[in-house]
Design brief:
Elements lengths: L55 H12 L17 E5 L1 H11 L1 H21 L5 E10 L4 E12 L5 E11 L5 E11 L6 H4 L1 H64 L6 H35 L5 E5 L16 H7 L1 H22 L4 E11 L4 E10 L6 H67 L5 H35 L3 H4 L4 H5 L1
Parallel strand pairs: 1-6
Antiparallel strand pairs: 2-3, 3-4, 4-5, 5-7, 7-8
Helix pairs in contact: 2-5, 3-5, 5-6, 5-8, 5-10, 8-9, 9-10
Length: 517
């Protein structure tokens, strides 16, 4: 398989649907997606300069303008059917627009902002905390005002230092103040770094899981846009095939009428010719409806206006290429977001199990306090206290749930590992089989074209009938559509291989972290 940037040998078939560089002409700071090279086989043909409307920024501006209802003059009724705006769009442009404007992805970006701030808040666990508590009060005999200032610092062992200064003044007596410093440390339940830091470690793991989930969402959006774009191409090619079929049917009708006037075929052949045209026009109407549906599906993903009609710039052609090598399995696992998430879920389950087992221990706490007031009196005390539950089975239930959650997480990881291996081998096989099917479909289409020409020649010589010509026409239409389906299915198989091997973002040169910002 040729690497990125390498030319494909002329004697090796490969698909190349290369297109114009969508990043050219973009404003500074705009997202750049790597031009179509090597692994990407789907792009546009390069003839002529691109119209301004084919640029994503212009496309979006036009669509947004059309989406805003304009006030109609008082003497003129609003136009019921606005004129659709058509513009060219490459697959690269479509992906770029989706990454910038897809609302579901925008919502996920907001979630990422909250997630990052949540982690920052969790990091405050071992940072100093300060508080100020002013007060004032009055009764019939006295008025009092004062306040307190406190500071605390938690340490990873589970202990906490606290310092507090309280002062009060009133009309009846002089100011009073007190200074207190305390330190408390659990010795069993909730003690030591492995337990007290559990919440912070889980928050960090959760942030990594959220990052991987956003990356997977970006990959899924890219895949959906690619398939929707190709579905639009498939629908457009079907319309072209049916339009050509209608033209041939009308030509056949003219030839049939000429032969009827010459007395070489029976008049009933005219009815068959008209029936063939009617069937072709019905199929064409269905194909155009399918094209509209595919266009609406794509503009819905790109968040464009409903009056936008997209003209794909991609062309379908099949070239010979080398056999696809199966990507290394272990590297594939390390690129799959869901596999990495499953591994992090195991880490979280291990932490939860350790915390659950610790919660079954008695609550034994050592506390030291030293207090000094305005009179100069100093008091110090040390207290060792314990709380031993006798009939509380909730800690045991928590431990059982944590143990089972860990077992399930490990089984999920093992199952995911096996399924990824199967998906990878199947994706490679689908690419190889898909290429063979494109070759067979091309051969079948060429034979169908030859067979139709033969039948039309025989009909002109009076050796065939309209029924046989129509049957040959049907065979050609099916063969042409099968060839288009085979090519697009093979391209989808390549996209699926990128998805299974975790190379979708690398193929399109997309930085998920940059998309998240």
């Amino acid at each position: 398989m040729p690497k990125h940037g390498q030319a494909v040998p002329s004697d090796v078939p490969a698909v190349s649907t290369r297109g114009r560089n969508a990043s050219a002409g973009r404003e500074p700071g705009a997202r750049r997606i790597r031009p179509d090279t090597g692994r990407r086989r789907f792009a546009a043909a390069p003839p002529g300069p691109r119209p301004a409307a084919s640029r994503p920024g212009v496309c979006l501006a036009v669509s947004l303008f059309l989406a805003v209802p304009m006030p109609a003059p008082a003497d003129r009724a609003p136009e019921p059917n606005p004129i659709p705006i058509e513009f060219d769009l490459t697959l690269e442009d479509a992906i770029g627009i989706a990454l910038e404007h897809n609302r579901d992805l925008l919502n996920r970006r907001l979630d990422r902002e909250v997630g990052k701030f949540s982690l920052d808040v969790a990091e405050d666990r071992y940072r100093p905390r300060f508080s100020v508590e002013p007060f004032t009060e009055a009764d019939r005999q006295d008025r009092k005002a004062g306040g307190g200032v406190g500071a605390s610092l938690r340490v990873p062992t589970g202990g906490e230092f606290a310092l507090r200064w309280d002062e009060a003044r009133s009309d009846e007596f002089d100011g009073t103040w007190s200074q207190t410093i305390t330190f408390s440390q659990p010795l069993l339940k909730g003690a030591w770094p492995g337990i007290d830091t559990a919440a912070l470690r889980q928050a960090r793991i959760g942030e990594r899981i959220a990052t991987l989930a956003f990356r997977q969402a970006v990959e899924n959006l890219v895949i959906v846009v690619i398939r929707a774009y190709r579905a639009l191409i498939r629908a457009g090619r079907r319309v072209e095939i049916d339009e050509a079929s209608v033209r041939r049917a009308r030509e056949q009708r003219e030839a049939t009428l000429a032969l009827i006037r010459a007395g070489r075929v029976a008049p009933r052949e005219a009815v068959r010719a008209e029936a063939a045209i009617a069937n072709r026009e019905l199929s064409l109407a269905q194909a155009r409806n399918g094209l509209d549906a595919a266009n609406y599906a794509l503009i819905d993903l790109l968040e464009l206006g409903s009056t936008v009609r997209i003209r794909p710039l991609e062309t379908l052609r099949v070239e010979r290429r080398e056999a696809v090598a199966e990507p290394p399995f272990e590297e594939t696992l390390q690129r799959r977001p869901e596999f990495l998430q499953a591994m992090l879920q195991i880490e979280t389950a291990v932490i939860e199990q350790a915390v659950a087992r610790n919660q079954r221990l008695p609550d034994l706490t050592l506390r030291f306090e030293r207090r000094r007031d305005h009179t100069g009196h100093t008091d110090s005390r040390v207290r060792l206290g314990a709380v031993i539950p006798l009939n509380d089975r909730s800690p045991e239930l928590q431990r059982l749930r944590a143990d089972n959650a860990l077992r399930k997480a490990r089984r999920t990881l093992a199952e995911l590992r096996e399924s990824i291996g199967i998906e990878l081998r199947q994706a490679v096989n689908d690419v190889e089989v898909g290429l063979r099917l494109t070759e067979l479909a091309r051969g079948a289409r060429e034979l169908a074209e030859e067979n139709l020409e033969i039948e039309r020649m025989k009909f002109g010589q009076g050796l065939s009938s309209t029924f046989e010509v129509t049957a040959s026409e049907d065979d050609l239409v099916r063969a042409e559509q099968a060839e288009v389906d085979a090519i697009i299915d093979w391209l989808d198989a390549l996209t699926r291989l990128d998805q299974v091997s975790g190379r979708t973002l690398a193929t399109w040169d997309i930085d998920a972290e940059a998309v998240a910002r």
